[in-house]
Amino acid sequence: MLCREHFEITLSLPNFPPASPGQFLQVRCSAPDAGSSAGSVAVPILRRPFSIGGLRRRTGVVEIDLLGRVVGPGTTWLSARRPGDKVDLLGPLGNCFSIPAPSDRALLIAGGIGLPPIRWFAEILHENSIPATAIFGAQTKDFIPLTLTQEPDPSGRPTRCVEEFACEEIDTIITTDDGSCGLHGRVTDALVCLLNTSDLPSRVYACGPEPMLRAVGEMCGAHGMPCELAMERVMACGMGTCQSCVLPVIDPTHDTGWRYALCCTEGPIFAAERIRWA
Ligand SMILES: Cc1cc2nc3c(=O)[nH]c(=O)nc-3n(C[C@H](O)[C@H](O)[C@H](O)COP(=O)(O)OP(=O)(O)OC[C@H]3O[C@@H](n4cnc5c(N)ncnc54)[C@H](O)[C@@H]3O)c2cc1C
Ligand code: FES
């Protein structure tokens, strides 16, 4: 386990199509020969969506990192996989974050288990020499699945306090809801700190709980900053068939001014101004 309730697994595949941060896999969270239950323990029949949290291509093998939080039977099953176990998956699915221009300054915001696509995106930005700052927010210190190299600044000043981002030359602000680590507050409180400095980001990318995404999207809109959000829906198929993942989006070409988009195929990444919040 990485920290309380959080785990990481690395999948090894002989090959895998090109993929980019924001895309996800549909993972069968039960053994290939399992029925809908194994003894008294229910195992999910439908695949579960997981963001690609990292991808490395080596000779003859592609390694994919998944980072998960145990919330139910599927994630419990996945967290119990051991080296040599086989996992059945589909992917890569969905769209991806857009790569900023070299002159841009990116701000990466992750809340809770929204971390995986943001962590991989940090690597890609570094490879493309695009400067970035990161904000990571958790409920409490026990839920931070990152390696802290120093105590994060409680004033919300970005520092090289997180190994996973520091190795990509990215300064990070940590926030916790209970003040047990870093800035006492939410990622939006850290965003306010950054908006009050002269070092403003030119593009914002966020993944996390929906109320956080809405608040981040609205703050960016008020400051005229383009913002991309990784939206989550229950996804039974991940391929546009089951219609379980509908998301209302603004669409001026429709009589009503909005329509339902399928989060799995049109998303999961949406420009913040396209979302029609409930
Ligand atoms: C595109 C996408 C990428 C995701 N990436 C990750 C990831 O990298 N790591 C990770 O841990 N989780 C991720 N999730 C969420 C993950 O798919 C769910 O936590 C998982 O399906 C839960 O399965 P379960 O059987 O353990 O729990 P379940 O019993 O299915 O669900 C437990 C609880 O989680 C809620 N839930 C289930 N699925 C979702 C969902 N898609 N969105 C919001 N709430 C949900 C349920 O309503 C329920 O309250 C992602 C979801 C999406 C749509
Ligand atoms: S998950 Fe089935 S249509 Fe989107």
Poorly predicted ranges: none
Q: Given the helix and strand composition, which structural class is it?
A: alpha/beta
CA-based shape:
globular
CATH architectural type of the largest domain: 3-Layer(aba) Sandwich
Number of domains: 3
Which ligands does the model contain, each kind named once?
Answer: flavin-adenine dinucleotide, FE2/S2 (inorganic) cluster
Distance between the termini: 35 Å
The spatial strand order of the largest sheet comes to 12-11-10-9-13-14-17
Please name the defining characteristics of this protein.
278 residues; Elongation Factor Tu (Ef-tu), domain 3; Rossmann fold; 3 domains; 5 helices; 30% strand; globular; binds flavin-adenine dinucleotide; binds FE2/S2 (inorganic) cluster
3D structure, described in words:
With 278 residues, the chain is an alpha/beta fold. The protein folds into three domains: 6-93, Elongation Factor Tu (Ef-tu), domain 3; 106-230, Rossmann fold, CATH 3.40.50.80; 233-278. It is 17% helix and 30% strand. The strands form five sheets. The protein has a seven-stranded mixed beta sheet with strand order 12-11-10-9-13-14-17, with helices on both faces. Strands 1-7-6 form a three-stranded antiparallel beta sheet. Strand 9 (106-111), helix 2 and strand 10 form a beta-alpha-beta unit. It binds flavin-adenine dinucleotide and FE2/S2 (inorganic) cluster. The site of FE2/S2 (inorganic) cluster (FES) has 12 residues, from loops. Flavin-adenine dinucleotide binds at residues 24, 44, 48-51, 67-69, 71-75, 113, 116, 232-235, 268.
